[in-house]
Amino acid sequence: MKQKFFFKTWSVYRSKVAAILISGCLALLISACSQNTSPTSAHTELTAQSQEAFTVTDQAGETVVIKGTVRKIADAWRAHNEVDILLGAGEGITATVMKKSVAPWMYKVNPKLNQAVSTFGTDFNTEDLMANSPDVIFMPVGDPSAAKVKSLGIPVVQLNFTNFDQMKTTISLTAQVLGGDAPARGEKYNAYLDRTIQMLTDRTAGLSDDHKPRVLHVESIMPLEIDGGNTIIDDWIHIAGGINVAGSVQGNMKIVSLEQIIAWNPDVIILGANGVNGKIATVADITSDSHWANITAVKNGQVFQNPTGCYLWDRYSPEEVLQLQWAAKLLHPDLFQDLDLVQITKNYYQDYLNYSLTDDDVARILASKAPKETL
Question: Domain check: are 148 and 225 in the same one?
Answer without folding.
Answer: no
